[in-house]
Amino acid sequence: MGAKSVQELSMNGQELPQNYIYKDSDGGIFDASLPIMEIPIIDIALITSPSSSKEELEKLRSALSFWGCFQAMNHGIEKTFLDKVREVTKQFFALPQEKKLKYTREDGGIEGYGNDMIVLENQTLDWTDRLYLTVSPKDQRQLKYWPENPETFREILHQYTEKTEVMIEVIFKAMARSLSLDENSFLDMCGERATLVARFNLYPPCPRPDATLGLKPHADGSALTILLQDKEVEGLQFLKDNQWYRVPIIPEALVVNVGDQAEIMSNGIFKSPMHRVVTNRERERISLAMFFTPNSDREIETVNGLVDETRPILYKKVKDYCSFYFQYYQRGLRPIEAAMI
Ligand SMILES: O=C(O)CCC(=O)C(=O)O
Ligand SMILES: [Fe+2]
């Protein structure tokens, strides 16, 4: 890692480096008392079978068209297991710095442990350290970046991967059914070797929550993202009609959001929502995002059945979307705009 980790900066308690500060933040826009979001709650058990509850499917369609996200409950992953995932995440970041450096991201690489990647001069940096790992397909795992400490880290991540994959399949099938499409429409387009990437995020306490962001505003480049939030510390916010909303914590729930590639596949019916993470002066926050992304050699386009005279096609075909994603992200631009017709 070139620069110091955010964790080290946080522990030093010195003046914040200038490149973490938003010059136009105007004091206080990030930690203003924003409204709490009335984020829809979807019962996954009710959308699992082909004979799913019509009502719950309609709720899903409406949640993803309005907000682009929901809290998943009753998803089949034990509460105690989610706690274990949070625990190993915290334990990893709590290791002494020299132990974590073993997993450091290489220059020009994406996987591994590090802080915000610098792709632009004058970029405002995110107040976060992260560990980024491809978890599926299995033969794509680069185990040299997988922590061996805490001892159970790898096994828990492996199990969490399998559970998340089951959930993603259920959700994608239900999304298709909610639009009266064949249930495999979206999954088939993603391909058999779709990628699942785990991003563990640590947001250390920050002396200037008024002028820094844990994560700058962005929409995910994935098709779908499953997020495990910190159990106690809030920070995630979604944007809707120019207003930011705080996401409430439900410890046993997982936050699911549409990514740009599912917005494209659904011809814009499902929205890939803008979101950001604010920092906290006193407490650190962790989260784990699982990004489900079509294989990079797949052409992604609007699926059959979602284009007609009233709804013309909105997006071009895209391929290897994530390869240009970061350049846009760091400029504060939306990569999906490059795909708009
Ligand atoms: O930490 C969070 O709550 C959100 C993380 C996120 O949006 C991401 O990793 O893309
Ligand atoms: Fe995100």
Distance between the termini: 39 Å
Q: What is the oligomer described by this structure?
A: single chain
pLDDT < 50 runs, ≥5 residues: none
Strand order in the sheet with the most strands: 1-2-10-7-12-5-4-3
What molecules are bound to this protein? 2-oxoglutaric acid, fe (ii) ion
The radius of gyration is 19 Å
Main sheet record: 8 strands, mixed
Describe the model.
It is a single chain. It contains 8 helices and 14 strands. The chain is globular, with a radius of gyration of 19 Å. The mean pLDDT is 92. Helix 2 packs across helix 5 (153-178) and helix 3 (79-94) packs across helix 5. It has 341 residues and is α+β, with helices and mostly antiparallel strands. The longest helix is centred in the middle third of the chain and has 26 residues, at 153-178. An 8-stranded mixed sheet has the order 1-2-10-7-12-5-4-3.
